[in-house]
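Progress narrative, work stream C.
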Amino acid sequence: MRKCYSAALMFLLGLPVWAGSTSVISVDTTDSSSIGGYSVDSTDVLAVAWTQTVGITGDVSVNFQTGFFDTSGTLYAYLTDSIGSGTTQLGNEIANTTFASPDPLDGPVWINVFGGIQLNPGFYYLTIGSLDSTSGGWSATSDPTVTVTPGFFLGDLVTGSQFWASGSDVAAYLPASNFSPQPTVADGGGPDLMFDVSVPEPSTIWLLGGALWFALLRRKRSA
């Protein structure tokens, strides 16, 4: 993946998640010196994936950590149940938002992009990108601290847990871009994009039976 920021340029470790909340799945770090980042602009789009075999009701929040951004641009975030060719806003989108780029002097900071949502069992993808000349970054770490509570795991069993699209592979609807999987630290690659899904305390997490597991395994075997 090109345009990788050096860890020396990334400072001020962002505080993980939010007071009174609990992470159900996240990639974070306790080592500020391990933070780098990948570019996010009109020619680079990034995404992460996770899978749930449980559902969550309540004020679920989805967050990611920024790198350094221009101060005048707009970034776009999407939460979908698929990415890549064939993904549509009508058929696959759960939520979307736009937000102004933070002041780069603030350093890496956690941004809450979605809140107050309910997540049923299934596959989820967080996509961050830009549709204009904005340039910025998504923080990543070479020393990830991964939180995975029962019923959650990183990735979608088939293609991986973090993705990148660039240039002509970027679609007008960003989640439909032609993404390539990017190896994580555990895969011998990395660094790992930093994101978090959290729920307030107390929260309600409801179990799904074996049906989804069976569906996931069938999907893996057919890939």
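Work stream C, second folded protein:
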Amino acid sequence: MDLSALKEMDLDDIVDKLKSSGLLGDKKVLIKFGITFGAILVFLVIYYVFIVPVVEEQEAKIAQMHENQSKITEISANTGTLQNFIKKLEPEYQKNSKLFHSKKEVEDLYQNISKFATINGLTIINLKRNMPVPIHKGSKTKPDGSPAPPLYFKIPVEYTIQGTYLGYLKFRRALSKSSKVINFDAEASTVESGDTSGLVKSVGTISIVGLPDDYS
């Protein structure tokens, strides 16, 4: 039976056809018709109220399942590409993570200089962190005349320490083993005049670099 066609039928047309055929005068026929019609109505109610929503829900779940499977397949196919991309980026990341210092790491370095000097029996006469110096690649201005952003910042730290030459060598070695890159820009050591204990005074400047976002 075509249920959609049955839904579109006009009830008056059905009654007129039954009257013209004389079936409405037969009580048995009317009872059968009533039972049949009632059963159809009950079936339609059950079908459209209970069955159709369940079927539509199942279809939606199946569609979602197919979509998820498609995404999983796509992700799986891209996993190898992503892993290769990460491997290519890792050396560059390691290089940059050792080269650039955050503000917190600059504070740590400042404290380490004092710590390394004390551990090796040195006396700090002067320890000064200078202002960050912007380093540009090429022109410092854009074509429109506005300032060009720096490529990175150079942060100089000046120090003057006094102690034994061996202590100074140990101090310098401790700094050079830092996990971050430290540049020794200048250093000069002199033996204290008239001192017979081997004390030296070392004056030096080290520098580190930081990203513009941290020091602009």
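The chain has six helices and five strands. No further action is required on this item.
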